[in-house]
Amino acid sequence: MSNTSIKNYTTDLYELIKHTQTVIRSQKNSENVMNPKAVDLLHDIDMAFTNQINGFEDLGILNEGTGKKVKDNLAKATGKIAGFIDSARDDAASKMLRDDYTALSMIASGYTMLHTSALGSGNEELANFTQQSLTRIAQLITETSKVLPHIVAEEIEVSDIAEEAEENTQKAWNPENFLVE
Question: Please, which domain of life does this record's source organism belong to (predicted)?
């Protein structure tokens, strides 16, 4: 794989994370996000993104002028989904977290692709960074899936079922419950 391709993949993912961090930061300041679990989750996502952005910059393999071209390249890299995530910040906290879950999943896919490319090109430093970053994103996806039932239950005013909803949804992700072919 060429160095140009690695730079392009790296830059695309970097820009997606920067854009998503901007959205996360606006959500942290939203009047609609009052639940302490949601506030803590958004803070954790923001901190993880800060660390990952710094990690990308430390690697020194981003395309030149990255900061100036974020919006243009983001549109190419992520299409309409990123625009959707950034829209309507007047949404309920549950919808914000749903959109964050989607964005985190896109980022996880990006890290999977970049990790594979780094391994293929023999870039051990990038492979290690992407593996660590993917692990953190997977943790944040899991945490989002645990917080979301609490936020929905709170919004529909049935908070007493939040723990049960969380437990049930987490069971769905247990590999023992997957269909065997």
Answer: Bacteria
Q: What letter does residue 159 receive in the DSSP assignment? A: G
CA distances for 168 relative to 33, 35, 139, 158, 179, angstroms: 24, 21, 18, 16, 17
DSSP code per residue over 21-83: HHHHHHHHT-TT---HHHHHHHHHHHHHHHHHHHHHHHHT-SPTTGGGGHHHHHHHHHHHHHH
Extract the tokens encoding 38: 């949601």
Determine, yes or no, domain membership for 52.
Answer: yes
Radius of gyration of the chain (CA): 18
Domain count, the chain: 1
| E-strand stretches of 98-162 | none
Per-residue pLDDT at 180: 67
Instruction: Note down the domain range covering 153.
Output: 3-176
User: Does the CA dihedral 151-51-60-113 come out positive or negative?
Assistant: negative
Higher pLDDT, residue 181 or 168: 168
CATH number of the domain residue 114 falls in: 1.20.1260
- The verdict on residue 181 lying in a domain is no
